[in-house]
Amino acid sequence: MTILPPDHDRDDLPNDDQATQESPSRIVNPRREFLRSAAMFSGTVAALGGGLELLTRRPGAAAEAAPGEFGDLAQGQVRRPLGPYDTSEPVTPYAQATSYNNFYEFGTDKADPARLAGSLKVRPWTVKIDGEVRKPQTVDIDTLQSWFPLEDRIYRMRCVEGWSMVMPWLGFPLAALIRRMEPTGKAKYVQFTALNDPKQFPGQRSRVLDWPYVEALRLDEALHPLAFMAVGLQGRVLPGQNGAPLRLAVPWKYGFKSIKSIVRITLTEKQPKTTWSIAAPDEYGFFANVNPAVPHPRWSQATERRIGELSRRKTLPFNGYAEQVAGLYKGMDLKKFY
Amino acid sequence: MSKPLLQASAGAVKAPVRRTASKPLAWLVPAVTVGGSVPIAVLMWDAYTGALGANPVQRAELQTGLLCLALLILSLAATPLRLVTARLGLAGGKGWTWPARIRKSLGLLAFGYGVLHFLIYLFDQGFTLSTVTEDVIKRPFVTAGFTALLLLLPLALTSTPKSVKRLGFARWTRLHQLAYLAVSLGALHYWWGVKKDHTPPLIAALVIAMLFGLRLLGRKKARRSVVRA
Questions:
Q1: B144 in a structural domain
Q2: What is the rounded distance in angstroms from the CA atom of residue B46 to the CA atom of residue A95?
Q3: Where are the domains of chain A?
């Protein structure tokens, strides 16, 4: 169908008779003509099909499960009894939990972290703890880890994009670490800073976010027994794509609050500015509590897809942890403090 | 618009039958139809083998949306391509006309992927009408995409040579200029759908703007040359 401008001269479309007269070779050698057409046909199919595939197809990353230093605690062995904070829902398969997530330090595609995590060097690794604490220090990750007995926590994880997983973390309560650092009376917030190194984090070569990634919790949120520091996943050492060697897991908040690959923890008096709330303040607030009643400006938060399931399920207030954490926000307008 | 012209353009889109040997570029339209359908076959294969990753529904939704936008942009490139190649003195100074012959196929493929994209979205929402209506009305991101698809519907329905005759070429042309509005809304829908990295939708928008600019420029030139003649 031609939508040529009305005033365009139209005799440029050759009709069949003209064409045959102009190119007698088509009649002279039909076999050659057929082969030529077949070649052109195949070439065009390949070019268009291949081009469209290149432009639009993003196959998911296939992550292989590498045995970690903690051994296979969660898989294959007798299931341990659930703790008071664990969900009994089926755990997201390791392969999916480690191949589909947001970690913009590696890239904006959810397959990027698994694909590129090899560039992250998790040892040696130090964590600087400073600000309003009586015991500021820079500590090696292995020393820090040895301070606390490691626990399992099977948590729901709800991404702000509308998908969720069930993650069996391994780690220790954030409260234990904070208490050990002895906060001063001025401490009101806990700020976390992730590693800033474009050599290890190729995604940081683009200014898609303000690097380094910064997140924060109110001190009472951080001291809540659900707030967790993870160093492992499903009985294995935490893979790079999931935020090795040390990440936060606050299950009642959207996933972006649970900052990965932490290098610094600072207790502050004032509310820190956090990365996503700087990037889009009307879309991502400081609190970012999972709330089906407050839609993201561009999409609803009423439902989510649990990875591995085909249909959506209802999103629960505080991601199903309302009983434990709703009290932290008593009297607050959660539509305003989203 | 004179009658033979219409016939010429109508003849160009008719699927070539039998006279393969005598008709130039007879392989072109079938090749575009098959090539444009390759992604749907690969998508089904990917779904079967699990290559769509952990969130296959979202992956399929995104890819069909991208395919719709890409094919729509390609279909709108026909006239600008002819104008540019004419400027370059190609094809005897008249420019390439073959892109115009595959425009209908590209447009229909785009519409097909758009419908598929919408169906996947409906499936994703569990075919819950209340959620979908709320989305379409309340969320500009969805409104833009939905409107774009609605605009493509009359274009798909009037894509036959018969419709050109029935509407008259001028009116038909004006109707099909809606494709530009649809593709712009599609790009906006893409922009709003992206969480942070706006580079891909920006590239799409720039290509659309460039194609539109070339068309305006070419049209002005053509008009001027008509006046001179």
A1: yes
A2: 17
A3: 94-329
- pLDDT score at A29: 80
Query: Does some domain include residue B1?
Result: no
Question: CATH number, domain at B119?
Answer: 1.20.120
The pLDDT of A212-222, averaged and rounded, is: 98
Q: What pTM, to 2 d.p., does this model score?
A: 0.82
- Compute the distance between CA of residue A93 and CA of residue A14 in angstroms, rounded to an integer: 60
Structure tokens at A265: 């923890």
**Do residues B36 and B104 lie in contact, with contact meaning Cβ atoms separated by under 8 Å?**
no
The pLDDT value given to residue A13: 47
- Is B109 exposed, middle or buried (CB count within 10 Å of its CB: 0-12, 13-18, 19+)? buried
Query: pLDDT, tens digit, for every residue of A116-154?
Result: 999 999 999 999 999 999 999 999 999 999 999 999 999
List of chain B residues whose C-beta atoms are within 8 Å of the C-beta of residue A13: 8-9, 11-12, 97, 100-101
A45-48 long-range contacts, CB within 8 A, separation 24+: A45/B31, A45/B34, A45/B35, A45/B38, A46/B35, A47/B35, A48/B31, A48/B32, A48/B35, A48/B36, A48/B38
- Positive or negative, the CA dihedral B89, B93, B99, B104 is positive
Inside any domain, residue B2: no
Q: What is the pLDDT of residues A282-304, one digit of tens each?
A: 999 999 999 999 999 889 999 99
CB contact under 8 A, A308 and B195: no
- Phi then psi for residue A213, to 5 deg, are -70, 130
Residue B3 domain flag:
no
Nearest to A5 among B19, B161, B219 (CB): B219
Q: Which of B35, B97, B161 sits opposite A44 (nearest CB)?
A: B35
Residue of B nearest to A303 (CA): B125
Number of domains in chain B: 1
Residues of A in contact with B44 (CB under 8 A): none
Partner-chain contact A7 B95, CB within 8 Å: no
| Lowest mean pLDDT segment, chosen from A177-186, B6-15, B131-140, B168-177 | B6-15
Residue-range definition of the domain harbouring residue B41: 24-228
Q: How far apart are CA A4 and CA B82, in angstroms?
A: 9
CATH number of A94-329: 3.90.420.10
pLDDT tens digits, residue range B19-47? 444 467 889 999 999 999 999 999 999 99
